[in-house]
Queue: 4 jobs
Job 1
Amino acid sequence: MKIRNDALAALAAIAITLGMVGTAEATASDESDVRGTIQHVFDQLKSGEYGALYDGLPSSSRNRISKDRFVSGLQRTSNLYQLQRIEIGPIRVSGNLAVADTTMFAHISKPFDADGKLVVQQYLIREEGHWRVATGDNATINRFLQANPTFARRFPIKRATAFVNQNGKWVEVPLGRRT
């Protein structure tokens, strides 16, 4: 099955949206708060609450893109997929930086009818006492990783991977490249 650019755009939109974010032991509260933040952001994306999603971005992300541009970009891609659920793996926290591996599942409706999943590492930063997902904002993530070199060595940024279910098997779809 040939994967068309619209399908890649839908998967990339999901990845980007969820990102606009010596080690210390994490407390159970920190891990719970991070998990809750990731789930909340996913739920906002799933229900189309794009304005609220923007308000929860790190300040550096909000400084790079206007709310109107962010919201309209998400609205343009919302008919390409229907988010279903997210699986959140173990949480690692160091000070004001956290990371978790996630798998998001969606039904892709255009340009074809298929189930997809996106495996992406979620980075979060704590600002003003709240965790904020910073996954697509590499400048912010890199600044925090440089300030926390031990954490950066243990949990380097991983490339997001997308898959489409074909005949009961997950087949990787290259992101950011033409097929």
Note: Confidence is low (pLDDT under 50) at residues 1-5, 15-26.
Job 2
Amino acid sequence: MKWRRVPFILAAIIAPWTAAQARSPSRDDAMRAAIHPVATSAAMQTWLARVPVTRDFPADFAATLGQQAPLYIIEMTTTPACLPCDDLWAKLGRFSHTYRWQVRTISGQEALLRSGRLGLPWVGHPVAWVRPLSDPNRIIPIAIGTDQPQNLARNAYLAAKMLTGVRPAVGLRAMAKFTGIVGAPPAQSGSSR
């Protein structure tokens, strides 16, 4: 008789625990899972090694990027001693050389404003956007953190397509996974109260 009650007792103990485990993650939990602050080159490379690389490109990929170059600019944030910023800058430099797109930096204040307009949480540097040269208010994020060169090119291509009328849902699905590999904040010296 006593052993027949054991499943009920276990169920009473386990049910609240599994319900707590099944709850949706909080925004803070999601941010911790999606953002990867790195302070060393080894840590950055470890995270980059986990990022899937785009392998298939549409037939019009290179032609579209080359033809769209006079219309768009890539703008990114940076800050001193930020390894992912240096990495993204170098990759965008190679992209710029290949496809003739302009690339420039913007201030952290401008980045905060843009993130707020799009409803994105500010996660740190670097972040990169594509926008038409003629319209500073139409912006599409193409990188939150550094990324693989192929993925950056894909995201620039998709941004150009979206800005020329391709349905946003198609492009957004393809760009939905940003790496979140950002620079670690500088170490604080002294005690905090």
Note: Helices lie at 6-22, 27-34, 41-49, 61-68, 83-99, 108-118, 149-163, 168-175.
Job 3
Amino acid sequence: MPILLKNILYVFLVTLIPGVEVRGSLPYAIGVLQMPAWQALLVATLANLAIVPLFFLLEKPVLAVAMHWGWFRRYRSRVAERSRGTLARYGIFVGLAVFVAIPLPGTGAYTGCILAELLRLDRRRAAIAISLGVVGACSIVFLVSMGVIRGVLARWF
């Protein structure tokens, strides 16, 4: 398998890991795999965007199983609590996009999808808001990655 295809597959798979998503895959692609920045950004963004339709496609059977686990029920409760302020401040649509765009642990496409499910939002509107948030998160992580890798670390080494 050509190295480019292998790298694209790695980045795509790392992005699909809940909790890691673009926060881990983009710095990994740029810093470890040494992919060109534009390629890493494109692959990580497309992979992170793919989470939304995948989640909504598999939502009912996966949540039916996951609701049997106490840790998942607690996680859903924490998601609802953490997002309350953002949603109240910006409204449901913009608040969901902002919540997903913040590249911190506990935010992201998966959490946005769970939040949309909890709030029983229209899937189309939720998918648009989550996708806008994903693009925002990818942009933030990309800018930070480029600054850290090309700026700060270059001074140390």
Note: The mean pLDDT is 88.
Job 4
Amino acid sequence: MVEALGRGEQLVLIRKGGLIEPGSGFELVANTFVFYPTFEHQAVTYLRPRFQRYFDEASARRAPEGQVRIDLCGVAVSSVSSHDPALIERLREFHVYNEAFLSQRLKWQPEQPLVIVVVRAFRLATPHQLITRPRYAGCKSWVDLDSAIPLEAAQPILEEAVFQQRARELALLLAAS
């Protein structure tokens, strides 16, 4: 959930790939990217109770119909693929999702692993409001935007020392898988 990334409470993306994506499952096609917030497949019931307020906050900040607001970017620090439900549970302090969501993700296309991407999130200096395009829509992980969004002045969500400490904790959990 983008809102949790923007607050430093979520440091991982948990992906399998979108329904209309080519290939077999999620592929990390770029190490640096913007977060294109959508409400596709989003439900407050998939969030642990303490994070459910983020759904309401994201809904309240939602851009007007036909537009999307982009104010965060990310850098993929590392990634690992796994079929192990225990790994997802060990990562609990680094994501906002509940057991129902994680179970649903694991059961969907069970031959494909979950891809856990450790992400460092940054807030853009200036939010960008874009017109949505039909080709942006749908269940997919990557969207090529019509225009570039400048990332140079983006500020990290977490201070360097805090992020590095949490990234080390994550690395230990991921290495144990």
Note: The chain has a mean pLDDT of 87.
